[in-house]
């Protein structure tokens, strides 16, 4: 299960770094492929439903009925502001993926199918999901790699067959032949598109779904990359986000297409992405900046200190972004929640639209964590179990549980909260 509050801690492995050698290819070419609209389906409201029994501490929060509880295939679901995109649990590896989008009350507003690539043994293929939350697009594709569900490291995987993408708000879909035409591609979960590989092992193009929901191709030359450059490639709001991994110029640590929005970065700058902005922390001078389509904006830390990596959480709850104990509103105003949280070493783990939060602490450098729900005024604090982790999105509390190889996505409305605590 992917939540916007989880995706933004990047610990990308070295396997994501790609030397640019023997670069070739055209620039800016449009590759829309086939385009259609996913079939719409309407069902009656599900109403209140019983949550899974393995979600702990619901009684402490006063929660008894969920707005939805959906069984999904693990790793192939994603929350957005309207609800959840997911794939039905897979029971037959030869069958099409059954893709759905439901609103927060469990109503299905569109569905579609993604075929298994032809010409390959279906049992050798693993379905994958990628997302550009800032653009509101997800994609599905297949790889021949075997995926360890416990490995959260961001890695490139070879693409087998076509690429299929969906606009989550409408169900509009597109597809491209991609690897089925004999070209070699790699991709990962934060790249809605892929890297086209040259015969010599270098990269010949970066392809992403852009703001027109069309797959476009960018050559390394167009992106200002030179032979021998090394970088990591992501998609953000339909742009190619590049993180230079061995840059001579620290400004190359952050590049959006051809723009370098923070030219005076230091070499130890840290970068995180949320759906609304890119957060850039320059540790040399504790300067925090937010990058949007309008450029870079300095953010006031309001006296907040940034915790060490072992307990630093950065994310987005739709209404707010956060880093450490700093909460950032959509207009860029900030507030330090140190008094509300109480413990100096704790960090925000999730936010709700009513101002309440979930905090996280660790006493063993990130090996284990403990969590608390804290009301907006700080008067109510409820200790929560480590698993399943309570996450949030806008005005909903969300949980992901797994049993017998099937995930269950469960959501509660924050208006049903009746917490009881110290």
Please give a handful of descriptors for the protein shown:
422 residues, mainly beta, five-stranded antiparallel beta sheet
Structure description:
With 422 residues, this protein is an all-beta fold. It is built from 2 helices and 35 strands. It is globular. About 10% of the residues have low confidence.
Task: Give the arrangement of secondary structure elements.
Elements: E1 18-19, E2 29-30, E3 34-37, H1 58-61, E4 68-72, E5 78-79, E6 83-87, E7 97-103, E8 108-114, E9 126-132, E10 137-143, E11 157-158, E12 160-167, E13 172-176, E14 184-187, E15 193-197, E16 203-209, E17 215-218, E18 230-236, E19 239-244, E20 255-256, E21 270-273, E22 278-282, E23 287-292, E24 295-299, E25 314-316, E26 320-323, E27 326-329, E28 334-336, H2 338-341, E29 347-351, E30 357-361, E31 370-374, E32 381-384, E33 391-393, E34 396-403, E35 406-413
Antiparallel strand pairs: 1-18, 2-17, 3-13, 4-35, 5-6, 6-7, 7-8, 9-10, 10-12, 11-14, 12-13, 14-15, 15-16, 16-17, 18-19, 19-20, 21-22, 22-23, 23-24, 25-26, 26-27, 27-28, 29-30, 30-31, 31-32, 33-34, 34-35
